[in-house]
Write a structure and sequence with these properties.
Helix content of chain B: 25-40%
Distance between the termini of chain A: 31 Å
Order of helices and strands of chain A: HHEEHHHHHHHHHHH
Bound molecules: adenosine-5'-triphosphate, magnesium ion
CATH topology of the largest domain in chain B: Rossmann fold
Largest sheet of chain A: 2 strands, antiparallel
CATH superfamily of the largest domain in chain B: P-loop containing nucleotide triphosphate hydrolases
Structural class of chain B: alpha+beta
Oligomer: heterodimer
CATH superfamily of chain A: MetI-like
Shape of chain B: elongated
Structural class of chain A: mainly alpha
Helix content of chain A: over 70%
Largest sheet of chain B: 6 strands, mixed
Number of strands of chain A: 2
Largest interface: A-B, 21 and 26 residues
Distance between the termini of chain B: 38 Å
Number of domains of chain A: 1
Chain lengths: 295, 364
């Protein structure tokens, strides 16, 4: 090991520029955020004051932040589960050898190919309570009388956002799982048919175990992506009304750049980081274990 | 236990006639091999028998039942795939259990059967491993095990030895043959290796271009090939096939092979030549049907050495006969002729074949 390092000693300087950029953009902000989370940063004054764990204490006692945590949990669980189920079904569908599926395959990728910003703006107008296409259509068909305030009414906000996330993210799941399905050798299914397995058994005995790694990676990426989903929520609702759709990342943004409470926002960032790192470790371990076992 | 009948089965892929009217009657407990060059339709035929591919025509009977429309699982067959197709995420034990579990066989019986199969194949110590942790030969045995646990009426095997090294292949050849006799099962075995076919089979079906060219015992195929294709395919080294013309010279018929005009000595070849429809024929001679003789021997033909190939117990000599490179075996293993050395060859006319040049059919 040491010998190896010594042998390559003249190679390391070439890494310096890249390491420098990474240090500047990742390592420095990372430690600075941890540092700030222990300080009060009054917006009216240039100085900052060490306050120990007060920021963390405030977060735990803040009822709004409790609501935000609850929203984040709902959002990341259902915002992962729904696209996952839809995407998995879509992958199974496009994996069939049927005519016309190439076109369907292409069509289904459209939401994924669209940027989050235009997609979010479009949906905000589609769901708009007064001018939205959905309300308008239903009204002109005479199916409803009052408008439906998808993004205003407490019981509809999170489901609406999760629905849009499903529309936006299911193609990602579909592509990943479709690629995974393609790698399963056809011969396994042939062998299973001869061994007497029904389609249902083939799915559970071959497809699922063969896909397990891809399923895990996809879920993890989707989950972490959702935890960090700032664009969609910020554009659609801005976290409102009354923090009903606020999740931790949007809350951090608002706390930093609207109320200018950098110390408090940093403390929330640190907490979010800890949660994400726990998930990542859990998944990486599961992944390497199944790789060793030969999944 | 069961006989298998293929009645004129057909499979089309667009314009390709992958299997073009194959009919075979395979007896109970018989070891039958489908052999032929790549793309001749062996795998397709086997998959049709298994029920993995639908028929475009014809019928398949197993036992007395027409199974043409049945699911693979209802045909009482087991199959070993070329790449084994073991379930990678299951242990060896679970691989063997799988067909029994899918058929809802109770656990104790299933375990007994798995134990018996693993004993027969000596894979008892591998039961808890995953397929990835096995060598090619061991995977091969597990694949065989998964086929035999169910006691099927018919075994189908698609080039099960092609992924093994030469030595292991010879060993497994013997074992599979032995296994088939021990289990008293009907076996349909696919290979492109004619030696494998010759050594293992009761009968061989030689296929080409989706059709069965000849179906018979290894002896029959070797000694009485129906046509040029079979003659050239069966036997190692392959039969020498020399284009020739029947000519009349001085009132008697002779064979002209390139520069050489050969006057047959025996009535048998004269009779053959009389039956030849056209003038153009193909002369078929096995390497052992051409003998090296002392210079000047009556009735011998003269050629030159092209190369000499010693293999240890036989020495092959390559030489041009009538513009066709032919292989003959030297009677003297130590013979080491050089390029251009003169050769006197005598043809064993009892073992000379004539084939029609156009149709390739043997002239009887
Ligand atoms: N799914 C398919 N679609 C189209 N053509 C096919 C398909 N499967 C096989 N064929 C064609 O059918 C013919 C027979 O194929 P098959 O696999 O039976 O050959 P084989 O005798 O098993 O050859 P090999 O020794 O290479 O395995 C080939 O010409 C092949 O190209
Ligand atoms: Mg094949």
């Amino acid at each position: 090991m040491l010998k190896q390092i010594w042998k390559h000693r003249w190679d390391y300087p070439y890494l310096l520029p890249a390491l420098g950029v990474m240090g500047l953009l990742i390592v420095y902000p990372f430690f600075y955020t941890i540092f700030l989370s222990f300080y009060d940063t009054p917006s009216s004054r240039p100085e900052i004051f060490f306050i120990g764990l007060d920021n963390y204490r405030e977060l735990f006692n803040d009822t709004t932040f409790q609501l935000v945590v609850k929203n984040t949990i709902v959002w990341s669980i259902f915002g992962t589960l729904c696209p996952f189920i839809v995407g998995f079904l879509a992958a199974l569908l496009v994996n069939q050898k049927l005519r016309g599926l190439n076109f369907a395959r292409g069509l289904m990728i459209v939401p994924y190919a669209m940027g989050f910003v235009p997609a979010s703006h479009a949906w905000r107008w589609i769901l708009h309570g007064d001018f939205g296409v959905i309300t308008g259509t239903l009204q002109s068909l005479g199916l409803i009388k009052d408008s439906i305030p998808f993004l205003q009414q407490a019981s509809l906000i999170m489901p609406s956002l999760i629905m849009i996330n499903t529309w936006k993210s299911f193609p990602f799941v579909m592509i990943m799982l479709y690629a995974g399905l393609q790698t399963i050798p056809e011969a396994l299914y042939k062998a299973a048919r001869i061994d007497g397995a029904s389609s249902w058994s083939q799915f559970w005995e071959i497809t699922i175990p063969q896909l397990s790694n891809v399923l895990m990676v996809t879920t993890m990426l989707l989950f972490i992506g959702n935890m960090n989903q700032f664009t969609l929520i910020e554009i659609m609702t801005g976290g409102g009304p009354a923090s009903l759709s606020e999740i931790i990342v949007t809350w951090i943004y608002h706390a930093s750049f609207q109320t200018l409470r950098f110390g408090l926002a940093s403390a929330a960032s640190v907490l979010l980081f800890l949660v994400l790192i726990v998930f990542s470790i859990f998944y990486v371990r599961a992944l390497t274990r199944s790789a060793v076992q030969g999944g | 236990m069961a006989e298998v009948s293929l009645k004129n089965i057909v499979k089309l892929y667009g314009d390709v006639r992958a299997v073009d009217g194959v009919s075979l009657d395979i007896h109970d407990k018989e070891f039958v091999t489908l052999v032929g060059p790549s793309g001749c339709g062996k795998t397709t035929t086997l998959h049709m028998i298994a029920g993995l591919i639908e028929l475009d025509g014809g019928d398949i009977l197993i036992g007395k039942n027409n199974v043409s429309e049945l699911d693979p699982k209802d045909r009482d067959i087991a199959m070993v795939f070329q790449n084994y197709a073991l379930y990678p995420h299951k242990s060896v034990r679970d691989n063997l259990m799988f067909p029994l579990r899918m058929r809802k066989i109770d656990k104790t019986t299933a375990e007994q059967r798995v134990n018996r199969a693993s004993k027969i194949l000596s894979i008892e110590q591998l039961l808890d491993r995953k397929p990835k942790q096995l060598s090619g030969g061991q995977q091969q045995r597990v694949a065989l095990g998964r086929a035999i646990v169910r006691d099927p009426a018919v075994f189908l095997m698609d080039e099960p030895l092609s992924n093994l090294d030469a030595k292991l292949r010879v060993q497994m050849r013997t074992e599979i043959k032995h296994l088939q006799q021990e289990l008293q099962a009907t076996m349909i075995y696919v290979t492109h290796d004619q030696i494998e076919a010759m050594t293992m089979s009761d009968r061989i079906a030689v296929m080409d271009k989706g059709k069965v060219q000849q179906f018979g015992s290894p002896d029959e195929l070797f000694n009485r090939p129906n046509n040029v294709f079979v003659a050239g395919f069966i036997g190692n080294p392959p039969m020498n096939l020399i284009p020739a013309q029947i000519v009349s010279e001085g009132g008697s018929k002779k064979l002209r092979m390139g520069q050489i005009t050969y006057a047959p000595q025996t009535g048998r070849v004269h009779d053959l030549m009389n039956k030849a429809a056209g003038e153009k024929v193909i002369v078929g001679l096995r390497n052992t049907a051409i003998q090296m003789v002392a210079p000047g021997t009556a009735g011998s033909i003269l050629t030159e050495v092209y190369t000499v190939e010693p293999t240890g117990d036989v020495t092959y000599v390559q030489t041009n006969i009538g513009d066709k490179m032919c292989t003959i075996s030297s009677p003297d293993v130590a013979y080491r002729g050089r390029l251009g050395d003169p050769l006197s060859l005598r043809i064993d006319e009892n073992r000379l074949y004539l084939f029609d040049d156009l149709s390739g059919k043997a002239i009887l």
